[in-house]
Amino acid sequence: MSKVVLYCRPGFEKECAAEITEKATQYEVFGFARVKDNSGYVVFECYQHEDADKLVRHLPFRELIFARQMFVAGELLRDLPPEDRISPVVGMLTGVIEGAGDLRVEVPDTNESKELMKFCRKFTVPLRAALRQQRVLLLKENAHRPIVHVFFIAPGCCYTGYSYSNNNSPFFMGIPRLKFPSDAPSRSTLKLEEAFHVFIPYDEWDERLSSGMHAVDLGACPGGWTYQLVKRSMMVHAVDNGPMAPSLMDTGQVTHHRADGFKFEPTRNNIDWLVCDMVEKPARVTHLMARWLVNGWCREAIFNLKLPMKKRYEEVSQNLAGLAQELKDNGINAQIQAKQLYHDREEITVHVRRIWGAVPGRRDER
Ligand SMILES: C[S@@+](CC[C@H](N)C(=O)[O-])C[C@H]1O[C@@H](n2cnc3c(N)ncnc32)[C@H](O)[C@@H]1O
Q1: Is there an atom of ligand 1 within 6 Å of 262 CB?
Q2: Which of 118, 145, 158, 162 can pair with 152 through a Cys bridge, CB separation 3.0 to 4.6 Å?
Q3: Strand order of the sheet with strand 254-257?
Q4: In the chain, which residues fall in CATH 3.40.50.150?
């Protein structure tokens, strides 16, 4: 199998393609990306047959910003015969993968694929049985074994292959299913909730998202992100000139500052979380986040970078490289991860965690 299939947000295929091409080169994997606008996926074709496996095994999935999922795939299976769509899929996988732990029959995240999804659900049961018979799949689900993917891009037309469970998205179609909490003041609450799911390992939630922590939310109104912090029993400073939802203010956990998020400074250095959803130029937001981290004003930060411009991949790469450099220059050791989340639109979400670092001296806004 020589292809790597990557899922992405429809409209971001070029960014996904540019990213996989650049990252593959770092692993000395060469090939080219096939892109169809608004399709919701990219196919990276490796020149060397075995390189697709190398990439999916070794390129850390968490480092990819625009890909929601990646798997090794063979040739596109076209015109699957309606009377037996199973045999060609099983044939493609037999001898390539054995003892996989789970099967996901998926589609691109487009409106056109919604009908196909109904078929996929029905198809999964008999396909799973056939794959078990051939030992492609284990008899019992196993979270530590590879995942078999069957990705229908049109009726009777699919890619199939596998991903590694320690280097993929654990979610079906790469999308965490979150329920909108009816008492949240805005739908963007789901962005921060998804960010927690994607960036913070579950076994660290009790320690890193725990009650009594202090948080600052820049650009907080009406309070969707603050809601997530309040729900986790944190004390929140919400900074915005707009109005906060009264239900949040009633909790007694929120202090509302009608101030400019670029000028606001915490009065104490005990802020665990800085979150920021201000609609501003990415460079300005990135610099502000660096300032908080360098000054030791917060331990972790989650922020959005809005991408209304044309050269989105370049913009993201430049800002993240600039942030990494600024932290390094100031002796801050930090983990930086960025992802275009399912609930992100023309934007990405970035998470930074300060591991250690001296706080040399105050850094001011330039
Ligand atoms: C996308 S909304 C935030 C939505 C919020 N995260 C939620 O979940 O409800 C952006 C907010 O940033 C605020 N904002 C923009 N520039 C700001 C600034 N310089 N200082 C403070 N707030 C700002 C706007 O007033 C607006 O309420």
Answers
A1: yes
A2: 158
A3: 254-257, 235-239, 214-218, 271-276, 298-306, 347-357, 332-339
A4: 189-354
Closest ligand 1 atom to the C-alpha of 262?
19
- Segment 77-122, tens digit of pLDDT: 999 999 999 999 999 999 999 999 999 999 999 999 999 999 999 9
pLDDT single digits (tens) 198-244? 999 999 999 999 999 999 999 999 999 999 999 999 999 999 999 99
pTM for the whole thing? 0.94
Q: Is 102 annotated as a binding residue?
A: no
- Which residue from 35, 109, 14, 64 is spatially nearest to 342, judged by alpha carbons? 109
To which residue do tokens 């972790």 refer? Answer: 300
State yes or no: is 122 an active-site residue.
no
Where do you find CATH 3.30.2300.20 in the chain?
Answer: 3-174
Would you say domain 189-354 falls under CATH 3.40.50.150? yes
Residue nearest to atom 24 of ligand 1 (CA): 219
Per-residue three-class SS string for 260-296: CCCCCCCCCCCEEEEEECCCCCHHHHHHHHHHHHHCC
Q: Measure the CA–CA gap between 146 and 130, rounded to whole angstroms.
A: 17
Q: Where are the alpha helices (DSSP H) in 166-237?
A: 189-199, 205-208, 224-231
Query: Catalytic pick from 179, 306, 310, 328?
Result: 306
Pocket test for ligand 1, best of 274, 278, 280 (most atoms within 8 A of CB): 278
Question: 3-174: what fold?
Answer: THUMP fold (3.30.2300)
